[in-house]
Amino acid sequence: MFSARRIEFAGFSLSDIPTAIMPENFVAPSDVSLGLGALSRFDLIFDVGGKRMWIRPNASYGQPFPHPVVGVGFALTSRAGMMEVGSIAPASPAEKAGLKKGDVIVRLGSEDATLAGFSRLKEGVAVELELKDGSKLQLVPARYF
Predict the structure, then answer these.
(1) Residue ranges, CATH 2.30.42.10, the chain
(2) Quick check: 1 pLDDT over 80?
(3) CATH topology for 72-139?
């Protein structure tokens, strides 16, 4: 992950965009993905019969992009209330907290571990994680790239 400082296309400019480098041939022919975060800032208007498309900025165009603040990817086998760590971003708050691939998080503060709970974490607000083995870790969400 890195932040694209500025991109320009179709006469519009966006800056500080979270960007991921994907494994070769992961989804698209490109190895770099700006993702839906950038596209969500625009309305796409299709003229199917005329084979044309227009793009215009929407209400979120000028808003700052949200950046990941934890640095953990969860395994697809995760289920509500029990999140298995699939990957840890280097130098991320998750790595600094001591999380490792394969750890299973069962509590996020005072609630069960869920994707929704992780998405609500705020930068700078520490949270205690409880792992399936009963150990506890302190995570301080922060922008890490």
Answers:
(1) 72-139
(2) no
(3) Pdz3 Domain (2.30.42)
